[in-house]
Amino acid sequence: MGSGEGHFCIELENGTKLGGNDLGLEKEPKTIAIEDAVKVLLQGLGEDINREGIKKTPFRVAKALRDGTRGYEQKVKDIVQGALFPEVGLHDGVGHAGGAGGLVLVRDLDFFSYCESCLLPFQVKCHVGYVPSGQRVLGLSKLSRVADIFAKRLQDPQRLADEVCSALHLGINPAGVAVVLQCLHIPFPNPDSKHQGWIKALVSSGSGVFRNKNSDAWGDYMGLLKFRGVTVEKIPTRDSMGNNWCPSYASSEVVAANPGMVAAVASILRSLGEDPLRKELEETPGHFLNWLINFRNTKLNGFTCGIKALLKHDEECSHNHQQIHSELNLPFWSQCEHHLLPFHGVVHIGYLCPEGSNPIENSLLQSIVHFYGFKLQVQERLTRQIAETVSSISGRDTMVVVEAYHTCMISRGIEKFGSNTATIAVLGRFSTDPAARAMFLERIPNSATSGIL
Amino acid sequence: MGSGEGHFCIELENGTKLGGNDLGLEKEPKTIAIEDAVKVLLQGLGEDINREGIKKTPFRVAKALRDGTRGYEQKVKDIVQGALFPEVGLHDGVGHAGGAGGLVLVRDLDFFSYCESCLLPFQVKCHVGYVPSGQRVLGLSKLSRVADIFAKRLQDPQRLADEVCSALHLGINPAGVAVVLQCLHIPFPNPDSKHQGWIKALVSSGSGVFRNKNSDAWGDYMGLLKFRGVTVEKIPTRDSMGNNWCPSYASSEVVAANPGMVAAVASILRSLGEDPLRKELEETPGHFLNWLINFRNTKLNGFTCGIKALLKHDEECSHNHQQIHSELNLPFWSQCEHHLLPFHGVVHIGYLCPEGSNPIENSLLQSIVHFYGFKLQVQERLTRQIAETVSSISGRDTMVVVEAYHTCMISRGIEKFGSNTATIAVLGRFSTDPAARAMFLERIPNSATSGIL
B8 or A204: which carries more pLDDT confidence? Predict the structure, then answer.
């Protein structure tokens, strides 16, 4: 980090606090340009930019984007200089160890980066190794810090791996550097509303003794990664992979682009120090808007008829003995209105129904979930809105649990990679009957192992 | 964070870079006092404080300790103010949801804290929930930021949970706050050198509707944590737990304390803003020195005889056909000389032996590992030294893999919680025979699932 960027960094550590310190960043032309662009986007989504929940969103987005791309202004030599320690190699004998050979591998470093195809953050698990030479070893944390410089830019996985690899090679001049990245991209909404895991990319890059993937050095490196689901066979070759891991390429919708919104995204790219005409960025405004437009503020929905039909059904048999129906793991996509970043996960719906009555159709519940998901939202409101709507259909007694992974929790200041958020709304009997709540909670499968979050 | 602390924070982001910006922190009396104390400790360990690897260690330690306890100077209200968003509750009907009830639970937040009993960092997985009231919800990331204020102090698990809980309750005035912490403490060396997992503590704290652990609200909260290995039954009561989860209480060694070193640790406590006479801190210097003294620079060891005996054996039968012997998962403890923080893990040793010959005794290999582990070290050197020593016993052809978890990787700037480091040293035939290396690597069990790292 250049020393001139120090001030900027403090503010990002402080989150949204608007103290005296924030005035510097707030007044910078780049920040103001991004704020203006975000206002155009919010208005394009049909939002009132003075609404309480989103009035500070333009500033929050500007701050997060500038922090998330701070790598453009950082230098590798600032990090590695003073962190190379003298360390002898083997005293005698044939072999490799210490400062003269002997693989050093730091595994399981978590980062996030920004996808250059769609501007959404993606997660990176980084395994970076090198073989020392010149009787010098690098402080272990510096491998992480150098990787972070390149993660904090607009990236695609292969380029990120290549840049980390070559920067370390130039910076510390070792016998070789090897980088393997396991990247996870949030899925785009799909027409079938099926459960869909994260999009994965596995890439590698090597220099020096690791330049050839058939080298002995690669064999050692992969031998130490074998338990992380990484094998040589799984890493695709550069040719087979192409440049389109990002789901925005497969997204069917093509926005009838609002030229103002397209120009706003291009303006954001320029403010981050990028060239919107760079080949890989040409389609980025369209891709980002293809994502964002899903969350426009619309009153259209497809379940009004369904509600009426079911209400009738409910009235007919509301005095019978009741049982809990549940519909679990309905996928949803939403957009955090505080940060204009995705949150994504599953909704579990439980409701009491007269015994023997037909449950509400899965497709209707999924429509309700999508209707309230595809908006600028907060998870608490989403949960309540789904519960109220299902209640109006099923006849009052409803419980909704939403489990979500918030991109803003990894790509903003706190960077809590494994964290996730659960919210509950209860109506009618569920609010007074803990046993009914417990029975419903029991049915919810383990999101940690089901791969949904 | 007070705005006056901003400058301090930049430096910590920058790692060890000594630029113009560092002069502020470097000149502060608190920093200098810690540096002086660390020099006393290093000299007490028999180290030359001008040695290349450790000459900047006093400053690195001072910086890390001040950053790791920055919570003393941070205020909850700076974080929550401006982050409470209006959010209505249910529009009608009986129930809880949105800004008027309806549990919000953020799970799996990773932190580290400093153990007040021994001054070593410990890991915290935090699950923090609350029930909104007053039609206001808190930005989700603020739950993490508030918890971090109290983690960045000298703590014990129960007090940490209580402080996070009561601070959130006062700060956002909800219907209730619930906190569950899963804490992991590095094990102290044990006389039997057995594999030993991390020391675990599971604690909880509740306010408002969560004050009573038999309340319905706790039932809902635990229902959402059920898959994280947390159940109501497992959480010990305050009375049964006591205050001594820290393994320093069970550590058998009692240092014939060097009064200068004791005074140095007390001086560090004072520089961090603590009172060394506070009841919980009275034994801390002794506990910390009980840990640290394991790593004094000594030439004593118990395996010289063993070496001679085995060398003889080797000479007798060095021309026979050879096979790979391996000794896996030998535990080690060491202390990073750059940061005066533990690294800890397992050593795997492979060597070629004439077929039919007896392998080197496990106890001798373990002694070698301990001899080189219990020092101020770097992992690369540790790996090389073990390999060279085993080679001198077994007759040249040796391979050593060290897998370690570095406390400095979680408790300093980069905070990479899951990361771990593997190093390899190869001598003799292992350096020229990739198949032999691969065969040995194949035998190493998965550290990620064996719970060793």
Answer: A204
| CA dihedral sign, ordered B150, B151, B152, B154 | positive
For A150-174, what is the mean pLDDT?
A: 96
C-alpha angle A377/A379/A380, rounded to 5°? 110
- The label of the residue with tokens 């949904």 reads A452
Look at residue B312 in the predicted model and tell me its pLDDT. Answer: 43
pLDDT digits (tens, 9 = 90+) for B319-375: 456 789 999 999 999 999 999 999 999 999 999 987 777 889 999 999 999 999 999
Q: Is A39 on the interface with B (CB under 8 A)?
A: no
Q: What is the pLDDT of residues B386-440, one digit of tens each?
A: 999 999 888 779 999 999 999 888 877 778 888 999 999 999 999 999 999 999 9
Q: How many helices (H) and strands (E) does chain B have?
A: 18, 13
pLDDT tens per residue, range A164-189: 999 999 999 999 999 999 999 998 88
HEC assignment per residue over A345-411: EEEEEEEEEECCCCCCCHHHHHHHHHHHHCCEECHHHHHHHHHHHHHHHHCCCEEEEEEEEEHHHHH
Amino acid identity of residue A91, one-letter, is H
Q: What value, to the nearest 5°, has the Cα angle with vertex A238 and ends A233 and A244?
A: 110
Torsion over CA: A386, A390, A395, A397 (sign): negative
| Contact flag B437-A219 (C-beta cutoff 8 Å) | yes
Is residue B213 less than 8 Å (CB to CB) from chain A? no
**Is A16 an 8 Å CB contact of chain B?**
yes
B91, A391 in Cβ contact below 8 A?
no
Question: Distance between CA B162 and CA B428 in Å, rounded?
Answer: 57
Does residue A152 carry a pLDDT above 90?
yes
Is a pLDDT exceeding 70 seen at residue A320? no
Domains A3-293 and A304-450 share a fold: yes
What is the structure's pLDDT at B137?
95
Neighbouring C-beta atoms of residue B323, cutoff 10 Å: 13
With CA atoms as reference, the chain B residue closest to A74 would be: B14
Chain A, chain B: beta-carbon pairs less than 8 Å apart: 325
Residue B296 and residue A52: Cα distance in Å, rounded?
60
Q: Is the pTM of this model over 0.80?
A: yes
Closest CB to A216: pick one of B18, B420, B434: B434
Instruction: Collapse the DSSP code of B180 into the 3-class scheme (helix H, G, I; strand E, B; otherwise coil) and give the result.
Output: strand
Contact A438 B223 (CB under 8 A): yes
pLDDT at B314: 46
Q: Is B224 in a helix, a strand, or coil?
A: helix
Fold of A3-293: GTP Cyclohydrolase I, domain 2 (3.30.1130)
pLDDT beyond 90 at A316? no
Distance from CA of B75 to the nearest CA of A (A): 11
- What are the chain A neighbours of B391 within 8 Å (beta carbons)? 93
Each domain of chain B, given as residue ranges in start order, spans 1-68+253-297, 69-212, 304-450
How close does chain A come to B440, measured CA to CA in Å? 9
Query: What DSSP letter does each residue of A177-214 carry, written as one string?
Result: EEEEEEEEEPPPP-TT------EEEEEEEE-GGGSSTT
Would you call B9 and A7 a contact, using CB atoms and an 8 Å cutoff? no
To the question of domain B69-212 being in CATH 3.30.1130.10, the answer is yes
The answer to whether the Cβ–Cβ distance between B105 and A423 falls below 8 Å is yes
Phi-psi region of A329 (alpha: psi -120 to 50; beta: other; left: phi over 0): left
H or E segment at A56? Answer: none
Nearest CA to A378 out of A410, A419, A423 is that of A423
Q: Which residue has the higher pLDDT, A128 or B247?
A: A128
Q: What's the CATH code, domain A304-450?
A: 3.30.1130.10
CB contact under 8 A, A93 and B6: no
Per the listing, tokens 């969350």 go with: A295
* Residue in the structure block whose two tokens are 């113009």: B20
